Structures are given as C-alpha cells and as structure tokens.
Amino acid sequence: KLGVHRALVVSNWEIAKECLTINDKAFATRPKLTSSEHFGYNCAMIGFAPYGPYWRQVRKFSTIELLSNHRLELLKHVRELEVKTSLQQLYQLWNKKKSSTSDKVLVEMKRWFRDVTLNVILRIVVGKRIPNSYEGVETVKWKKSLDDLFDLSGKFLIPDALMYLRVGYWWRPEAHEEG
C-alpha cells in the first residue's frame, strides 16, 4: 500500500511491457493527486485527466483539431520566427559580452530550449512572447513562478497518500516545503 492506496511495484521489464501493452487500459489512468486537482482544474486538463470517456474526447479533439498537419503547417511561421528571434537574442548577448580575451558566451541550453518552447506556446495562444529572455526582473519572477508550478505539479505530496490530510493542506505555504 502507498498510504491508503493500493500500489503495484513492477521490477521486471517483461512484466512492465505486458502492463503497458496488453493491459494498457488498466494502467493508463493517472492518480488523482492534490496538485492535479488544483493546477489541472480538478483533473480537467488532458495531462492530469484520468483515462476514460472525457480523456478520450479531449485527446481526439487535440489530435484532430490542435495537432493536425494542417494546423501545424498554419503555425509553422510562428515556430520559425521564434527560433530566429531567440537566435538573434543569443547573437546580441554574445556581441554584448564578447571581449578581446574570449569570444565565448556561456549559455544554459536547457533554459534556452525552455524559453524558446514557452515563447512558441505563448505566441500561438496569447499572441505575445516574453520579452528578452535573459534580462528583466519581471521576466525572471514570472519564469520562477512557472518553474515552481511545474515542480509542484510533479511532486508527490503527503495528502496524496493520506487522504484525511487534504483539508487545509494547500492553504499552508510551508506544507509544500515539508512534503
């Protein structure tokens, strides 16, 4: 048991393959975590939704409407423009920081790819991008908040195992540090 929930530990690759291919529908659902209720609008977002009729309907809509070849082709210019803009920003950063002793600028690629991806999504959804990714206090605060959101949404918290602790857990900020 994992708290009040029954759990199955699979330690053999052959059994794991069987679980994920033959019995995939039984193992396809996601656990109803505290974070998915709060961040995922009570598990309504596709990434948090449990497997079932609702999930199949949202997946079908996403596949047919949002991620179709036609839609991706229509939005190709946004991806290209964002990559071009981000490369220009890298060039400007290099040009600004280059010196006579070194022609190199250290770039954290994980952060750069995250920024490019985030800006592509924001341009498609909102029509705007986050200004200069490497400067600005407001930008840093916003990205820190987003990183915290993703970090918390992936954590296993104590109330996920012990259901009776759910009441009031989210209203105490220090509880996240304890969990």
TrEMBL record:
The UniProt record lists the keyword Transmembrane helix: no
Keyword RNA-binding: no
GO molecular function annotations of the record: heme binding; iron ion binding; monooxygenase activity; oxidoreductase activity, acting on paired donors, with incorporation or reduction of molecular oxygen
UniProt KW keywords: Heme, Iron, Metal-binding, Monooxygenase, Oxidoreductase
One Pfam family cited in the UniProt record for this chain: p450
Domain of life: Eukaryota
Gene3D superfamilies assigned: 1.20.930.50
Family: Belongs to the cytochrome P450 family.
Protein name: Cytochrome P450
Species per Swiss-Prot/TrEMBL record: Gossypium schwendimanii
Lineage: Eukaryota, Viridiplantae, Streptophyta, Embryophyta, Tracheophyta
